[in-house]
Design a protein that fits this description.
This protein has about 180 residues and is of the alpha+beta class. The chain is built from two helices and eleven strands.
Length: about 180
């Protein structure tokens, strides 16, 4: 590196899918999730890693890992909103893993029913998908973000007012003086 320390660069030989369904889940202590993800012995394309404080159930701790029969495809995407179609079926709850940053304000439904959204693989968005699920809808709905937009808009209007009002008053004063001088 530029400061003389050694660094390791990892490169994937294939691009992971943006949305994929995994049957296997494992709980890992928070401090070890990233280390586990970069360990080449861990099949990260077959198991979703959750913090050990997560309420996720059906976890596995050793191979063989169950393979999911469900395939995911993103059918619609817009900032803060996406739809995912699922084909195939697993016999138990599986985990839709989406390469999108998790945040507590994500909400999901599976076939119109509320679904649990979790943080998986340290930073990714995961949705619990019950057996037979066909469509997952995700929406980002943050009250804090909405409040921040209102505060920003009010601040912008106040700033424009602080600049515009003195200019407008100064201009009117100039017009009044000109009108008085012309009489």
């Amino acid at each position: 590196t530029a400061i003389g320390t050694t660094a390791s660069l990892y490169e994937r030989d294939s691009t992971p899918q943006y949305a994929r369904v995994l049957s296997a889940a494992a709980k890992v202590p928070e401090a070890q999730v990233v280390t586990t993800l970069v360990d080449p012995r861990v099949p990260v394309d077959q198991v979703a890693l959750f913090d050990d404080t997560s309420s996720v159930t059906g976890t596995v701790d050793r191979p063989p890992l169950p393979q999911s029969n469900v395939r995911a495809s993103v059918t619609a995407w817009a900032p803060g909103r996406m739809s995912v179609a699922l084909t195939g079926e697993d016999s138990s709850t599986s985990h839709l893993l989406i390469a999108e940053n998790w945040y507590p304000d994500w909400r999901a439904t599976v076939d119109g029913k509320p679904a649990t959204v979790r943080r998986a693989d340290h930073t990714l968005l995961s949705v619990d998908v019950p057996s037979g699920g066909r469509r997952v809808e995700l929406v980002f709905d943050s009250r804090d973000y909405a409040k921040g937009k209102v505060v920003s808009l009010v601040s912008l209007l106040l700033a424009l007012g602080m600049v515009g009002v003195p200019l407008w008053v100064g201009r009117r004063g100039t017009e009044t003086v000109r009108g008085a001088a012309a009489s």
